[in-house]
């Protein structure tokens, strides 16, 4: 397709060669991507007295005919035709010198065979053909599924993609499962990852990878598996030893489940909590010094949207007083004040426990002999030397 342009002199014929600078081959292939600009190269280099008169781009149709896209004349300027008007332009302001075609916003329908036709004087007509393949970058999505422990084998996530050529889907995960791929008539592909849900899988990676020749590396759709399960309850305490008179004592109930449990229910010996002990969420707070009668089984039940769990804590209380604590007991009896050690608290707790179980006896029993009415008040003091300050 090179040209020899010859000029006759008085004694010698001088010939110079003209031809295409690009594309170098008569037929070439090229790839592009939708929604991007596509450049189709075409540049003819003239030599000597040769001139490019007109440049025309065509697209070959399926029936063998040609669809005229754009043309440029060295005197009349350029013209765009039909559906290509406003969608294409020449790359250079002087298309006679550089005839490359720009498709401004490439569509899937632009795929096909293109011809760059160069008309020269006096050498004639020359062409270059370009077969254009248009790729559609994949549009992809991932649909996660919320699972519950104990369910049967089922789909945990679905990954979908559409593109041209058809994308390939795969999964990146450390979990064992089954993958099933399906292709629809509309040109989309779906991949299903199925497994048997266990609580140990909650939060594990289950990413979908979308592979396509138009992508330099696979597109990753990040995903974490969600497996809901009932809570497990545990009861802990910060006190290493519980003893009579212990202050600011607490039992703490924790529920490990998904979703995180929010409801806590406390019971003592299967019934109501002792007086002066209250539940604040997951904590059981002793709002007064610990009594010997507070011992026994404390149960905490935690609940989430999936189910419930419960645990029991057997509270043992040491009847021995802490060395730093003494109890000053004032007993009003014929005007006398008696100082007793803290061991008496154990006895008082037993009385309190017995009184709670047989309160009707105290309510119904009366005495008219005021000489034997006894009033008791317990005061905690940190130092035995302050006994002189005690009064009833």
Task: Write up this protein.
The N and C termini lie far apart (126 Å). This protein has 392 residues and is mainly β. It has helices spanning 343-357, 359-364; strands spanning 3-8, 13-22, 27-33, 38-40, 43-45, 51-60, 66-73, 77-80, 88-90, 101-103, 112-121, 124-144, 146-148, 154-164, 168-172, 178-183, 188-195, 207-211, 219-221, 226-236, 250-258, 263-268, 277-280, 283-286, 296-303, 308-315, 326-331, 376-381. The chain has four domains: 18-135, Immunoglobulins (Immunoglobulin-like, Sandwich); 145-224, Immunoglobulin-like, CATH 2.60.40.10; 229-315, Immunoglobulin-like, CATH 2.60.40; 327-389, no CATH class. Strands 3, 6, 7, 8, 11, 12, 14, 16 and 17 form a nine-stranded mixed β-sheet that branches. A five-stranded mixed β-sheet has the order 13-20-21-24-23, with no helix packed on it. It contains two helices and 28 strands. It is found in: Membrane. This is Ig-like domain-containing protein. Residues 26-133, 138-222, 231-316 form the Ig-like domain. InterPro entries: CD80_C2-set, Ig-like_dom, Ig-like_dom_sf, Ig-like_fold, Ig_sub, Ig_sub2, Ig_V-set, Nectin/Nectin-like. Belongs to the nectin family.
